[in-house]
Amino acid sequence: MTVNTNQRFWKKATGITLTAVMGVSLLAGCSSDSKENAANGGTPTEGSSAKRVTLKVEVFDRGNSPAPQTITNNFLSKLVQKNFGDPNNIDVQYVPIQRSEEVTKLNVLMASDSDVPDIVFTYDSSVFYRYAGQGGLTDVGKLLDEYGPNLKKFIGDETLAFGQLDGKQFSIPGKRAITGRYSSYIRQDWLDKLSLPVPKTTDELYTTLKAFKEKDPGKLGSKNIPMGMALAPAQFETLIYSFIKPISGDLTYSQRYELPLHEGFKDAMQFMNKLYNEGLISKDFGLDKDKTQLAKDIQNGNTGYWSEDVDAQFYKDGTMDNLYKNVPGSKVTPVDVYTNAKVDNKYIKSRYASNGMYIMIPKSSKRAVEAIKYLDWMSTGNNLIDIYNGVEGENYDMVDGIPVVKENVSQEFADRLFNGGDMAIISNGKNLGDQATNEKAWVMGFPKNNQEMLKQSITIANTDTVGPIVFGKPIEGEAQYGTTLTDKLDVIIVKTTMAKPDQFEAVYEQEMKDFMSLGGTKLKEELEQAVKELPAK
Questions:
Q1: Per-residue DSSP letter, 358
Q2: Rounded (10°) angle between helices 125-133 and 3-14
Q3: What is the pLDDT, as a whole number, of residue 38?
Q4: Residue 117 pLDDT > 80, yes or no?
Q5: What is the CA radius of gyration of the chain?
Q6: 249 φ/ψ angles, rounded to the nearest 5 degrees
Q7: H/E element, 115
Q8: Is 434 helix (H, G, I), strand (E, B) or coil?
Q9: 179 CB contacts (<8 Å, ≥6 apart)?
Q10: How far apart are CA 377 and CA 320, in angstroms?
């Protein structure tokens, strides 16, 4: 392939010219060697006569490497080399990519024959579909059968489907350990002071919020916030999902900015408008995208009810610990209150897909076999446990088959695992078996005083969940309009929520008109057609 051909591929795949990114011309990964490799999947390396080879693996660099370790030379990289690399005559070389620049840097590497790692990954499905659709990735289906049976079993067919395009396996999706996403919470001490029961429906919640405002059980005056809100998914998604109708059974569109395309979205916005105009939710929520103010309000005892990521508040010296320290006598109860009238009054909420990141082998790689062997090795025995947890007896103890972090671990031992989550790319979270076991292990990693409440939160997060539809092909509108529509969703939420009640209708109609004109119409048409083309079950 010539430089000019590569530049055409690059521009099709990324929308920008190669020279604009690199300032130099690069050859694409289609040399005669790589063509031969694409045909045979790479060269096996086992056996005494095998030539020693190098396997290059992407790794996220978060700038948090504790001295004397580095992101490419550390306890875990040495563990991999000793237990996988040396026995297979492979030098495992890690190629760092800054987490904050992952897609940009990956685009540059994918345009290069010599610099691209043999294993790359992304969390962005549109990036995966773009590379696969433009012929930049290796079909690993047969390689998995031959060299990755353990890996294939570990990931499972349901999750592997996320990495398929037109029936071919162009990605190995990481397996998510926990799919529960959100839970909600209420100040039990406020309820007790007002002799109120725990609300169990959306209507009961509204009545409770009104009582929190009017009777001010915390004696907070102007600081009283009946319901905490931020312009963040954990807060607004929990409310919106309780009004929308999923597309098919317990499945719906996968992208957050596609929420306005659902039946019931307007009802959700009208309810938020009602809460805001009655002074029941955080006044300046639209300025709080990172949830900083919400966390402060909760920790200072100013908030009566809120929703949050299922684990976010329970870390040591986190939100819950600080609330109890700052407000003696405060008590919190996890609750499930948002009932969805469109789905039999179930407590509808979103769940994570079963996949984590998309792990890919570029078409230019000459080490596809070694790459699959590496991932297969990671999925076998105690290798994932070692990567995530370190050394038994020093970093953790096994309790009923679950690795439990030791208390008062030395800094030296703790530093071993600074990049454990980023090295264990086949597993998003600690996969120890089924989800119940994973959840038990997860809970045991939190402070004991918060474990019971976290268990309750996980139960809520797993109740009546709705997951993403797997289309098995790219939705072009997502790649084309996703960024713009994501920004527009924030605008819709803020403007419709803060509109005066008599202006809500006009504001909502105008904002939705803008949304549809910015790509919403074409996206809606494409999604509806993709749903029609789904295989019958």
A1: E
A2: 150
A3: 39
A4: yes
A5: 25
A6: 60, -125
A7: none
A8: coil
A9: 351, 352, 353, 354, 435, 462, 465, 467
A10: 39
Quote the pTM value: 0.83
- C-alpha dist (Å) from residue 191 to 88, 212, 306, 307: 63, 8, 14, 17
* CA 61 to the chain's CA centroid: 18
Identify the residue whose tokens are 């978060």.
62
Q: Which two three-digit tokens encode residue 531?
A: 């749903």
Q: Which two tokens stand for residue 291?
A: 């949830």
pLDDT digits (tens, 9 = 90+) for 245-299: 999 999 999 999 999 999 999 999 999 999 999 999 999 999 999 999 999 999 9
Look-up of token digits 């996206």? 523
Amino acid at 316: K
To the nearest 10 degrees (0 to 180), the angle between helices 504-515 and 476-498 is 170
Q: How far is CA 321 from CA 199, 324, 325, in A?
A: 24, 5, 6
Alpha helices (H) along 134-201: 141-147, 149-155, 157-160, 188-193
Q: In one letter, which amino acid is 483?
A: T
Digit-coded pLDDT (tens) for 438-476: 999 999 889 999 999 999 999 999 999 999 998 888 899
* Helix orientation angle between 265-277 and 233-241, rounded to the nearest 10 degrees: 120
Examine the pLDDT at 21 and tell me if it is beyond 90: no
